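Subject: for your reference before the review

Hello V.,

The reviewers asked for a structural picture of the protein, and I figured it would be easier to keep everything in one thread rather than splitting it across files. Below is the amino acid sequence we used in the manuscript, unchanged from the supplementary table.
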Amino acid sequence: MTEQYANGSSPPTATYRLQLQPEFPFEAARAAVPYLAGLGVSHLHLSPVLEAVPGSAHGYDVVDHTRVREELGGERGLRRLADTARRHGLGIVLDIVPNHMAVPAPARLNRPLWEVLKEGQASPYARWFDIDWAAGDGRLLLPVLGDEAVGPDGAVRPDVLRVADGVLGYGPHEFPLREGTGHLPPAELTAAQWYRLGSWRLARTRLNYRRFFTVSELIGVRVEDPEVFRASHDKVLELVRDGVVAGLRIDHPDGLADPGAYLRRLRSETGGRVWTVVEKILAREERLPADWPVAGTTGYDALYRLDGLLTDGRGAGELASLYRGFTGLPSDRGGDWQPTAARAAAELLTHDLVAEVETLVRLAQRARRAGPAPGPDGDRSGPNRHANPPVSEGADTTTGPGAEALRSAVRGLLAALPVYRPYPGDGSAVPPASAVPGDPAAVALVRRLALGDDPAFQARFAQTSAALRAKSLEDRAFYRHAPLLSATEVGGDPGRPAVPAAEFHAYCVRIARDWPGTGTVLSTHDTKRSGDVRARLALLAECPRRWRDVLAALPEGPDRQVVWVTAQTVFGLAAREPERVAGAVLKAVREAGLRTRWTDPDEAYEAAVRAYAEGADLAPVLALAAELAAPARANVLSAALLQLTVPGVPELYQGCEAEYLALVDPDNRAPARFPARFPDPAPDPSDGPPRPDLGSEKRALTRAALLLRRDRPEAFGPGGAPGRPAEGPPYAPLPVRGPAAAHCVAFCRGGAAITVATRLPLGLSATGGWHDTEVRLPPGPWTPVFPTPTERDTPTDPSDTPGPSWVPVAALLARSPATLLARP
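And here is what came back from the structure prediction:
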């Protein structure tokens, strides 16, 4: 649905993401405001600002919802930033984290968790967290112990512990002692607590609290409880009421018990005064639930279409065949996408997410014993039974009769889901029982529970599904199947990396109609490679045979997967930066988990990987990158202009207004650096050599598009401008004809702005250019906004006509591979 705003407030025209951290606090952001206002954005998008683990470089490890983070400058610093932003015409968007909190060291930093550890289920804070007390015999497992702290019997070694002033310590960790137990000897002391200290290795099999994905240091929060929602959102809501905050980004809503209900409550509490988007990953054919009261997503669905539009589908297929032959990887270990994705999911379910599967088996056993769950009218089918089963329900196990059949059914149904998670009422997202292997009765039971016969099971099943998809796809299969690294991106589909122009236009028409205020992105703090790196990599799908020749000239490495990934990484950067490349390749092999893992490293193999990434002669890769500099420029500028002008609210990640070549952590979260003011305009590229550098050219394009969006809101929506209705449909593809029509994408926004961009530039060059290809423009006149018009352009511009006309694309794109036109 389209979000409505109270008090006449407007959604952003463009946002700019800043990664706050101790090295880049509120004061640094405040100093950047004049520059960012000059760039043309309307809102600053801040990473999480509530109190987090000390030193955190991201802020998603929240420890206190009631305070703004002191390391960033505290609430006073945030309000000063908001005041400065307001004076420059900018609003503030906050990234909030409702799904989880940190399990910090020391635990006292998280007061609700500290009280639960101290008092157990009797604590008023026990309702805050998804803890299955029955599974832990009434205790909470804390998998914090290193191997040196665990004895042969699995028990904690007393000599690694310390006890003082009612606190139990281990290394940097501190935990409260249960009242009256401080005098006990070590073995009795540890057994008497409401928590159990265990090896970090137990997290995957024995954990009895919900966590974020597979990160045991982040414990799930039950914001579906009204008291927990209130306590964890009061500060944010206060900032909204005070006008400090004008927008909200909701982190990982798929981790919540009922995202729709949460968003409706949030909407009610904010009064619709803020633009709200959700970090939701949608499958290619999936749609955002129409009843969610938000403006849309954070933009990964747009990222996929933008990247796909610049990808040659046929060439990507050839590249995939070359990859299989070159690497020799088996079909299910990287050679082919679907078998690789299926194997990765199976591995997660039988290894990394064993604890989550066992929780679902226990819930299924309980539901089978108890019968249907009570609903709102007394029938046992309602939405209000999502609570942690108390110990009194029995310390059930997952080894009883039928447990293995249930386990198989749970795994099978989770693996078969085609989306990140199903939602209540959406039965089509859960495959029929006949499509899932296993005992038919067990599969049928699990499916009924997942569809809502037991809301506790339904919620946990959906939450586990989201974790499974994220970890098995984004953090494993994407690193195993790597024919084209630009396709292995958050929200992407490596099995279908290309998006035809007609499909792209259909998507944009739908978004303009249904979700005009949604977000669009090319780079975020989570993207594995920045948009500019991916734009360069997309060229390889246009020249797979050239890539084959480059590979043949490279030295052998630890294995051929490492050679391939290293070479594409260097090509995407178009530079030899050994340390950064080695870091990216090491992360890739660890995430892939084929020969080494984060938790079980093969040190000899990793040393060989590093040596290759840092020292191999990759001159042929760099030579190809240099040769393709012109088409790389075309892809970078076209992608940038498309993102800034398609339906939705564009977000710029810090630094992306210029050339930005990043490789995930730590690049994506490095402290930002800004000039004191917006730089002078780039020189006109038509003035002859030297051509402005790509960074300056991209910055000029970005500013031109953002200022047009700011000045002509009726053209770009979503709400338009009071008294200034749009002059045409919100998004209209423009017809293109001629021999190179497939290489041009053109559309008109609101009858007032036109984008014309180049796609597949290598193929265009191979056929000799545009020739007599033409695009049909609506009635003019039209004035170039980018590139900046010159005196000689204005009177002779071919688009300066009173009626619809066919205009040569070569004339429109004579000075740049992408152009933006507007009505005067």
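For the response letter, the relevant points are probably these. The longest strand covers residues 62-68. DSSP finds 28 helices and 26 strands in the chain.

Happy to draft the paragraph if you're swamped.

O.
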